[in-house]
Amino acid sequence: MKLTKPPSSAVHHFGDYLREWRQRRRLSQLDLALEAEISTRHLSFLETGRSQPSREMVQLLAEKLEMPLRERNVMLASAGFAPVYSERTLDDPALKSMRDAIDLVLRGHEPYPALAVDRHWSLVAANSALLSLVEGVDPALLKPPVNVLRLSVHPAGLARRIVNFVEWREHLIVRLHHQVNVTGDAALSSLSEELRAYPIPDAARRSAQTREDHAGLVVPLQLATEEGVLTFFSTTTIFGTPVDVTLSELAIEAFFPADPETADALRRMAEKRQAAAGA
Q1: Within a 13 Å sphere around the CA of 197, how many CA atoms are in the beta-carbon half?
Q2: Is residue 182 within 8 Å of 167, Cβ to Cβ?
Q3: In DSSP terms, which residues pair with 249 in a beta bridge?
Q4: What is the pTM of this model?
Q5: How do residues 37-53 score in pLDDT, each as one tens digit?
Q6: I need a labelling partner for 65 at 20 to 30 A (CA). Which of 25, 158, 187, 248 fits?
Q7: DSSP H or E stretch at residue 86
Q8: For residues 246 and 120, what is the distance between their CA atoms, to the nearest angstrom?
């Protein structure tokens, strides 16, 4: 186990860091003071450096600001306190049960595709249904660490097979924008710009937009395969009440068939994989 150590460039004066996150959450001093049940004057003194916070006050304010665990450690360090939340690697024995749970969820979701990613959308694990859908992409994009968003919209990745490319890419960028607002992660901001810069494949320019609007409830992924165009919607699952940085940043993305034709095609693909494995 190791404790998170914030990069030196991220260790600000506590007051500056507090103000930055308060403004990121679009809260006035009065709003935050009411949430934390402290006086506006005291909060102002904390931001200007006229008062120094206790460890308990730092943790209280971080909780009210809904800061990610990684950033809570940085905030503690900026106030002169040691980090509280551990950051283990996924192969740490302490996380074995969590990793087993991820593998169980991924296998249990077959014949539908599912994957687990970290905070920067690097692939942690995937089931066989997902892996079969990415066959034929540039091998360079499959070298670890595999960024699944780059893999999906890169010209040498799945881009040319995504029928509703423009709609899907915009959906991913909106999700990244939300993550940047929540986490303040510069790497995610750069990834968003990278995705936006990728060209639109000719096939996507010529194709019509989404065949069905799915009641306006979800943005589907339409992927061209040997079984025809498959249409998916996705859900995201995270661990509840984690106290480890790594675990708090893991997410499972599960794809479901959006129509009966896709469900039938995925079952046929699973049968082919099983037959090939048994040959």
Answers
A1: 7
A2: no
A3: none
A4: 0.86
A5: 999 999 999 999 999 99
A6: 187
A7: none
A8: 12
